Structure of sn-1-specific diacylglycerol lipase ABHD11:
Amino acid sequence: MERLTKSLRLLSYSAGKLLSPAPWSPLGAKVLSRKEYSSEAPEPLELSFDLYTGENPETRPPLVTYHGLFGSKQNWRGISRALVRKVPRKVYAIDSRNHGESPHSEVHTSRAMSEDVRLFLEQHSHPNAACMGHSMGGRSMMYFARKYPELVERLIVVDISPISVPRSTGEMTAIFDAMVSLDLSPTLPMSEGRKLARNTLLQATEDETVDFIMLNLRKDPNSGVFSWACNAPVLRNFLTRFDNYQKTLEELPPYTGPTTFICGTRSPYMRREQWPQIVEMFPNSEIHWLEAGHLVHFEQPQEFITLVTEFLNRTD
C-alpha cells in the first residue's frame, strides 16, 4: 500500500478565476445575470480539475475527461488512478461548467463546454490531448473534436450517441423541476434533508437516476442552507439544446482521428442501427459493447480500463 501511495500523486485544483461564485448555490438560485443566457459563444470558464500522475514517463499527450449530466470529476477517480499505472500520460478529470466545483454560468451548450476545454489545454500548455467523455461529456468532446481536430489526438466516447438521446425533454424537465422546487429547512440535519430530497425526486424518475443526482446535494456547514452542486435552473433551461445537438454537430466537418465508442448493451443511449451514420461523422472509429447499463465505467470498470488502456497505448 505504501508503494502504491508513493507511485500515485493526486493534485487537486479548484479553478474559477474568471467567475468566482461559491461552489454551492442555493436550491433553485441562478448565479449570473440573464445577459449571458442568449450568448452563443460565451467566454470560456476556468474549470476545477484533478490531476493524476503515475511513475511512467509521460511520453504521450494527456488524457482529459468530462463527466455526464449531474456528475463531477469524482466520477473518474478510480478509472484515472488505474489508467496512470498503465499509460504514459497524465490524466485530467474536469468538472464541467455548472457542475461540481466549477463556476456556474447561464450558458450550457456543447459549444460552450468545448471552448472551456480549449482554454484548459491552452492554459496548461498542451498542444493536444486524448479526450474522453461520458454521456453529456461525450457529446461535448465529440463537438470539441470536430471543432478543433488539431487539438484532439484521439477520442473516447462513453455510452452516448451523436444522433439522439432516449430520455424525453419532458421527463428531464420533471427531474429538474423537482430539484429546483425542493425547499429544505436549514435546521434539518443532512440525513433528514437527503431523505426528503430523495423522496421528492423519486416522484420524477427511477431509483438509479435519483441515487446519482443525490450526489449533488450539499449543506453549507455554516448557514445550514441546502444546495445542489450542479446548476439545476440553467441546466433545465438548456434542455431543448440537447435535442438540437445533431443539427449543431452537422455544421462541423467529420473528425478523422482515432475514435472509440464504449457502450452498454443494456443502455438505450446508443442504438446499433445508428452506427452507419456515426461512422460518417467519425470515419476512423470503432465500437465496443460491454454488458452494462448507461454507467459503463462504473458497472464494468476492469473491462472498461482494459479497452481504454489498449486504445490510449496505440501508436496509430
Q: What stands out?
A: The domain at 2-166+241-312 is CATH 3.40.50.1820 (Rossmann fold). Residues 110-123 form the longest helix (14 residues). The two ends are 35 Å apart (CA to CA).
